[in-house]
Amino acid sequence: MTYRLWYWPSIQGRGEFVRLALEAGGIAYTDCAREQGAKALMANLGKHEEAFAPPYLELEDGAVAQVANILFYLGEVHDLAPADQKWRLNALQLTIADLVAEVHNVHHPVAVSDYYEDQKAEAARAAKGFREERIPKFLGHFEDAVRGDWVAGERWSYVDTSLFQVIAGLRYMFPQRMATVEGDYPKLIALHDRVAALPGIAAYLQSDRRIAFNTEGIFRHYPELDAA
Amino acid sequence: MTYRLWYWPSIQGRGEFVRLALEAGGIAYTDCAREQGAKALMANLGKHEEAFAPPYLELEDGAVAQVANILFYLGEVHDLAPADQKWRLNALQLTIADLVAEVHNVHHPVAVSDYYEDQKAEAARAAKGFREERIPKFLGHFEDAVRGDWVAGERWSYVDTSLFQVIAGLRYMFPQRMATVEGDYPKLIALHDRVAALPGIAAYLQSDRRIAFNTEGIFRHYPELDAA
Fold first, then answer.
1. Closest CA in chain B for residue A125
2. What is the residue range of A163's domain?
3. pLDDT class of B113 with cuts at 50, 70, 90
4. Do B64 and A91 touch (CB under 8 A)?
5. Is A5 inside any structural domain?
6. Which residues pair with A65 in a beta bridge?
7. How far is B110 from B119, CA to CA, in rounded Å?
8. Do B69 and B91 belong together in one domain?
9. A49 neighbors B144 (Cβ within 8 angstroms)
10. In this predicted model, what pLDDT tens digit does every residue of B6-25 receive, in sequence order?
């Protein structure tokens, strides 16, 4: 079966965590809105009461929505995570989701539906707290979770591909800050490089399926929000 | 086995979603920090690399962290959710988690670690957007998810106890706004009342185990943030 993934066609965003797991696992999927456009994405959402928002994965009947849920599902069905660590890995993925929500909140602190340009002063304040307090707290937690080469120990799981994206995203969004703190998280940085070298991921990153980071996604580079 | 739940002892907060499922299911647990205090809570957190923050459930070995993960776990082990709907229910619970994060963001838009008093102007702006746009969007989604008496159809699940808490929390936080919009969500309000009448929940709500809503928790009543 080829999965039908639905997500915004012009950003990495939350959908990227799903794309990376599918690509690393060599699992066939169609990135539907990249073929059919954003209008089709929103029209299709109405068919699935399970889904509050993209991304979601369409199955033969119904859909699986919410990033951590999709990854838990893929982990179980395609063995992308050791079953005896499934609760631990889901907890870690949910903590990554918390980080992602806080990252979005940095550039949209006051209103999800307003433009960044209308909340720049508040974003500057939010960015300072995020850079100085939250980045070390989250990365320290994830550093402690690496057991050997991978989070699960001897084999990669969807949490590793997600942590790759966290590091890549934070480097794009906060290049100065990350240059300052990266040295504190050697296991996490080595894990990022190990994920980038997985055959499925190496091929994906070279392909046009990997959308470049941009200021419409979750991780956004606004130079005024960065500092060492 | 008696579960050992660890969460802040003086608020409902995120821990309440776990407490409600345990109480409704008649599952034995100790609310450890209510006996040992907040200092013990933080000291104990250091023992469990799985847990980024409270709440977490201590098992014989290790811990299960993150509200939606704890509920998924309890659902599987104690049959608090029909197995054939597990991905759908987890997706709904994760959308409840998104709502809870946005609720917290209303009174802490700029910095998690600053006081509400230091971000009141921004909170007023955030509250307006949340009241007018997000409450109808989320409640409409949950209203559509009710299938008969319960979300899963013929029996209650942890998503029902969580939706009870969402309605109770929003009523406390935004009494004026909820009075205006509640009529649009008859299935959700009926479900709230049905959960309140479950024997385990009815007994819990009468007990001193149910902490009252207050302005230290997630749902906070600041009259200046409410409007019809």
1. B110
2. 83-197
3. confident
4. yes
5. no
6. A56
7. 7
8. no
9. yes
10. 999 999 999 999 999 999 99
